[in-house]
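Bit of a strange request maybe. I'm writing a small parser for structure token strings and I need a real example to test against, not something I typed by hand. Could someone generate the tokens for this chain?
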Amino acid sequence: MFEPLIGNQRVKDILRRMLTARRVPGAQLFAGLDGIGKKLFALEMAKALNCRAPVGVEACDACPSCVRINSSRFPHYDNDDANKEKIIWSEHADVGLVRPFKNIIRVPAIRELEREANFRPYEGTARLFIIEDADRMNEQSSNALLKTLEEPPRTTHLILVTSRPGALLPTIRSRCQVVRFAPLDAREIETHLLGDKKTSNTEAALRARAAQGSIGRAFSIDLESYQEQREAMLDVL
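Reply from user aminoacidic:
Good idea to test on real output. This should exercise your parser:
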């Protein structure tokens, strides 16, 4: 279900309307800050499209299809050349991810995506492929993707995810329906952090202020370093 995802209510409403109308675009571009949940929203769409017991138009989170997608992990393979040309598959046979290999999305990975996109779903009703950090496609891999973006098979959906939509070729952007994600509100981040019983009120408030709209940054920031920098700036003022 979309509701447990943090923030971006407008995006949730847009995606629900797509599902209600049964008009989910073949190619979408999820654009917004790093660490605000764009990939989680994409996986939620994958669940909704393949759920065996939907609640309205949303995923039930309990059927075998939802459970497999929820349990998926997408490892990084930057030190394994054998995987640089491959889709990283989820636990569900119809949901896959393409991500940069050593900061570049290469043509062979896009070629494999094109090939897989033309197959009918194996166990669900739709195939969904996420291209993470899609701005890392070079001109060659971008051009290789164009045909699939123009004419995706009826049961295949592509979601490109990026924090830098302007870095994509105009020909890529023009073939996708763009869904823009807003930075998260500090209160939303703080509330989420407090849901983790390991975070104190004081730490949650500080991390939320330092996060600059990104829940990923809230988790990863070095608080000690942040406080030192903040105090140094205050001394200058």
